[in-house]
Amino acid sequence: MEEAIIEPTTFDLIVVGTGLPESVIAAAASSAGKTVLHLDPNPFYGGHFSSLPLHDLTSFLASQSQPSDARCPSSPQPDGSDHTSVHLATRPLYSALNVTSYSAEPLESRKFNLDLAGPRVFFCADSAVDLMLKSGTNQYMEFKNVDASFVFDKNSGGLNSVPDSRSAIFKDTSLSYREKNQLMSVFKLVQGHFEVAGSAESDGGGRRISREDLQRPFAEFLNRMQLPQKIKSIILYAIAMADYDQDLEACKDALKTEDGLDRLALYHSSVGRFPTALGALLYPLYGQGELPQAFCRRAAVKGCLYVLRMPVLALLADKDTGSYKGVKLASGQELFSHRLVLDPSFKVPLPLANSPPASLQNSSHVVGLRDVQGKVARGICITRSSLKPNVSSCLVICPPRSLYPEQVMAIRVLQISSNLAVCPSGMFVFYLSALCEDAVEGKQLLETAISSLFSVPTSGSPEDTSAEQSENTEVLKPTLLWGAVYIQELTMLFQKMYPDEEFFPNTASSDQIEDDSGLDHET
Amino acid sequence: MATIGHNNLNAKLVLLGDMGAGKSSLVLRFVKGQFLEFQESTIGAAFFSQTLAANDVTVKFEIWDTAGQERYHSLAPMYYRGAAAAIIVYDISNTDSFGRAKKWVQELQKQGNPNMVMALAGNKADLEDRRKVTAEEARVYAEENGLFFMETSAKTALNVNDIFHEIAKKLPRAQPAQNPAGMVLVDRPPEGSRATSCCS
């Protein structure tokens, strides 16, 4: 267990990092019969997708905010070797980390499972959920519904509920009769559109939205339906989950009507997809760090070899062609593979990145590192009370301009309670996120959201005085016990690696789950 | 966690122990009544379930195997979560495997829930002539650490059903769930459900 000499030494694929994308790849490749070695430098699974105790989270964020040193770019191997080693450096994925504790007594670090990064909630009908079912990872995890969704309303300073189904519209008390009818008409229109689209192409029923209109902005479509701002806001930001302000003339990412309708349909088909899930959104018990663990377990069941606590120091390149051959581990061992997948935090040395297609880091370099999608501002808050009485988990959307006039991005706030086993009982964890251009914008977005939704004790003052203060205000806001804000680089890593293999061939059907893939399939 | 309802108890059981100690063989013997002389390292088996009656209740074991992730000490927290029982397996003909079993017990005491029923299984008891770990030594260790102990043989089936039976008897009956229960997602066509959500 201590001195791990890895056997065998040659694999079809080596995957470095156990983040969610890497874990899905490892599971898919193992299921396709490839020999896979999956490594992680950390003592835990999940990398940037893990859920960690409080102290581990802050130290991980701090350590990942520093670039690793990239000295000794390449060194010749001892005589007689046919390859050279190229030192691997990582780039920091986090920046502008700011952690503040307001609690008089220290929080019990080990009782928290805090998510480092998204995706934090899933639509029941999301393709990611399909993937869990298809890959068989669903049997290792438990989920709960997010109880409700709300839209932050700056005028009332309160939260308007998002009715997500027809029955919810009927029951809703915050909407007027007129508003209910308007919302209902949108739902009907969408349903009608997809019913016609789903039936034969030729019948061209009157309710189908024209192709031309489908290419126009969704906001314009909603305007033509003469919806009031409140309803429009619910549809655009709390159901279609748009990020950018859709009413801006120069909206960077205007949602097309076509895509808007698809998102409404996704939301709609999520409600009631699972018999025991009433709402549209799901969150995993113990935090989203369960997902990579589940995919890794799936991979292991299919023969993938797992070694945690094993950093990769260098890539091995062929002396003559310069193409990828293998990796050098921190233990000094050299291992070889046909293909390699690296965690997106690695900086791939250029000569290798340009080498022949045999090496996958080639494509992960191009796709993963050049095509960075921007930044996400993330915040984590801990309190002892809910944003809404009697609601244990909820998603709160602060639409563009709901907090301040120049706010271009929507902010999403996910509240999770101890009934999802992410914090001690009686506490609540909030995850805030917003896309942003830079750290300044990101911090402004989140800090405004935090001060609007929570009562933030002035630093240094003990908890109880701030509780007194908040009692004076009209709306009783949860008082912050602990808060962290940081900026994360968005990365992507996807490439069809084994074009001839089916991506997770269907596993045992649900009634055979108990015996899993079983012995009968064993070779 | 063991959950109870109508005299039925669902209990997650995890297996721990050195590679080659016979974890999978024990389960195979228990679940399928089979034994393979040259069982390969665990590939392809994630978990099994087996139901048995103990006293007043029916216990359905959901047995999780390590899937080889113990080989480089890389088991995920997910593995231990909610486990009501654990069998720590060693090979009586291998002193190292007994030493490692003690390490797994420590790991369980750290990761697992405090009410977990832990069994120590000295497997390969049929290899008496190659014995390296005495039953007495193991029994003393087990008693000191709150485990119950049996020597087993997956090959001859010695004590295999008995160890599971003993665990079933020891499981707390009306234990309040320590952690909240969620739902396991089970596939079914989304179309059928859509109708139920659209009340009219």
From TrEMBL, chain A:
From the Swiss-Prot or TrEMBL record, state where the protein is found.
Cytoplasm
CC per GO annotation:
cytosol; nucleus; Rab-protein geranylgeranyltransferase complex
A Gene Ontology biological process in which this protein takes part is:
vesicle-mediated transport
Segments for region (Disordered): 65-85
Q: What does this protein do?
A: Substrate-binding subunit of the Rab geranylgeranyltransferase (GGTase) complex. Binds unprenylated Rab proteins.
Q: Which family does it belong to?
A: Belongs to the Rab GDI family.
- The protein's name: Rab escort protein 1
Naturally occurring in which organism (per UniProt): Escallonia rubra
Q: What is the lineage of its organism?
A: Eukaryota, Viridiplantae, Streptophyta, Embryophyta, Tracheophyta
TrEMBL record, chain B:
Q: What is its membrane topology?
A: Lipid-anchor
Q: Where in the cell is it found?
A: Endomembrane system
The GO terms this record gives for MF are: GTP binding; GTPase activity
Q: Which Gene3D superfamilies does the UniProt record give? A: P-loop containing nucleotide triphosphate hydrolases
Name the InterPro entries on file: P-loop_NTPase, Small_GTP-bd, Small_GTPase
Give the chief site where it resides: membrane
GO annotation, biological process: protein transport; vacuolar transport
**Known role:** Protein transport. Probably involved in vesicular traffic.
Protein family membership: Belongs to the small GTPase superfamily. Rab family.
What name does the UniProt record give this protein? Ras-related protein RHN1
The species is: Escallonia rubra
